[in-house]
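G.,

No rush on this.
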Amino acid sequence: MTSEILVRLLNVTKYFRQVSGFQKFRDFMLPESKNHVVEVKDVTIHLYRGEILALVGLPNSGKSIIGKLMAKVVEPNSGRVKNEYLTFLASHNHIFEGSTSVRQLIESVFLTYNMPLQSYNEKRKHVLDFAELGGKEKCSIQQLMIEERTKLLVSLAYFIKPDVIIFDELYQYMDRDFKKKFHMVIDMFKKERRAIVLIDSNMELIRTRANYITWMSHGQVKQSGAPDEVLPLYQSYVSDYYSCRTDEERELFDLQMRMSRSLNHDKDERLSRIKKYGGAIFDEKLQRTLISTLMLIAGIAMMFLLMINDIGMKKTEVAADEKGIVEKTVDEFREKYAIGVTNKPTELQGGQKVKLPAGNTMTISSIGDETYKVDYQKRTMEVKQQDIIYINPAALYDEYTISELEDYMYDNYSNFREFFNGYLGKHHSVINKELYPETNDRFKIKLTKNEIYLHFNDYDIMNGISFPIVNEEKLRQKFNISTEQWIIKLDDGYAIADFSKGEWLIIQM
């Protein structure tokens, strides 16, 4: 462990409001502190490089929320979280949502952590092998057992190798053999001076692994220190809690911490007097009447303002037209990693122009209003959005195999696909030497006596194959296709059926 601090939580408070609909508006107008559910309150924690920090506490003590705050999954209502390092939150209530497949989940995590697109296939296979999930990459994550999800989380952490790793209640779902793998992962992270947070109820794991313990109770830090100082006290505390015979006794357990959890009892909390000392001044019926009246008045005022603005807008437009004033908008870019495929011959702009044929694949790094920024030979260049087919690796594209689509593909490709696919990832010079192409363009070549074209990326590596669509109408009918470009996941890459050109394009990143 070093003295370098990777994550700081400074006087952090996080609460949620138990309101919705009309009550939510009422709470905004006339706030009541009783509507706040305080998850954590006034918590300060420092996480050092190379440290293994354990968070312990009874259920609902705020441990998992601390993990989410450290990972910046949620923002605090007050206080400050400072974390500028790559962080992975391995938690069952974080990434396992929706009906995405295992493969799509892995690739979306890769995308989030900016892993190179070219390494997706190899890394994904490693993740599945380590997690013992071979053959399940097309399964929905909802079909996995919780033990399998646990293995997947640990495997993702192992191959992403973030600076900060937060394991939230995973150990109980591991079998004996995988626990050995888990300890191996911890040993490796510790050797590499990565910071680890263990949120777990297994005291043996905490005792043997943690350098430091923070004990949470009712959303607050009850005690912090070395394991030999804190663990005996905490274990006695847990024993006392479970010795309570009734729910009433448990409600009164650790009453002082429970009472101080409420925002009402925090003298230093920056709340208004209404929030700190009272509920609403008016009863329920009067509140509803008052706020309904205010809403009606606000609506009338808004309509009046809109009417005024409409009248003024016409005059402004006329004046602007007479003066010939034209405001040029600035193209603002949003960072986004995706795959772009040229849909026609186009040019990349930036420094010097680069002319590309249709079917060329590139990495999109950010999105503007009308253009994309793309990576080309370690340079950032721009291309018009209208010239690009956009593929989002995190999107839920339908998945198919070649055998399901071969009836709609050019015979020479479908019959010899293993031969042609074997050249994906090979250098241009190898293709020229072994296949004797009919044409020899830098980015796209045609094979002799075939309607098959091979495509090359900016580093002269073959990453695409195009050929004609056959039985086009049957293809549209069978898969209910209404768009001109049909994008699907195909084996280890993507396929685009471009009906405007009558052409398939197989892509492997």
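When you get to it, here's the other one too:
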Amino acid sequence: MVIRRYWRIAVFAPFVGFLLAAGVAVVMTNAGSGETEFRFWFVVRSMANYGAIGLVIGAVALLGGLAAVAIADRHLAKSRRLRVTVAALGAMGGVVLLSVAIAAVLSLMDDGLYAGITIAFGLAFGAAASVVAAVMVLYAERLSR
């Protein structure tokens, strides 16, 4: 039942993550100075790199949100507000869990200096993922009526 209602989110969430991260890359690299052709290819490379990271974050947020909704409301019998809130918290939890896992791997590789900032970025990306997840679940709930 959960998959039937949220299949659109499962299809579009990684692409939304890619597009949002690519948009961030454009904003970050657009203010660069120098030769125009070099800047164009720098923007394209940055869009691809940031987009790949956004794709992974979108997929992890999708898994976290779907798992949280499946745990909290398996038969989709509770209120829409609960499902939206739980999906947002699950998406943030999935992204933060990924960042904590990456920080643990960095610490094991004797590079624990970047563990704190990795978790901080995970919190920021998780906040963005939770907003996007809430909007997507709210949209899916409206379509299912």
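The longest helix spans residues 36-72. Residues 2-144 form one domain.

Enjoy the weekend,
O.
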